[in-house]
Automatic annotation (TrEMBL):
This is ABM domain-containing protein. Pfam families: ABM (PF03992). Residues 1-63 form the ABM domain. It comes from Shewanella frigidimarina (strain NCIMB 400). InterPro entries: ABM_dom, Dimeric_a/b-barrel.
Length: 67
């Protein structure tokens, strides 16, 4: 994931008490990079695979810094 253009951080976290549960935490440089990631063929294939079972989704706000 973090080899994708515009992805500056990608982590996979495993729940210690439920080893079948993971959280994916990613940071993208801008909205265009985020949108490109979710439009990518490999991302769509992962989302549609039997490996994923979305338990919770978060509404996000892109934060930027100036200066």
């Amino acid at each position: 994931m973090n080899s994708e253009p515009g992805c500056s951080l990608a982590m996979a976290l495993q729940n210690k008490t439920n080893p079948k549960q993971f959280v994916f935490w990613e940071r993208y440089n801008d909205q265009a990079a985020f949108d490109a990631h979710f439009a990518a063929v490999h991302t769509q294939a992962f989302i549609k695979s039997a490996l994923t079972d979305l338990k919770q989704a978060f509404d996000y706000q892109l934060l930027t810094t100036e200066g």
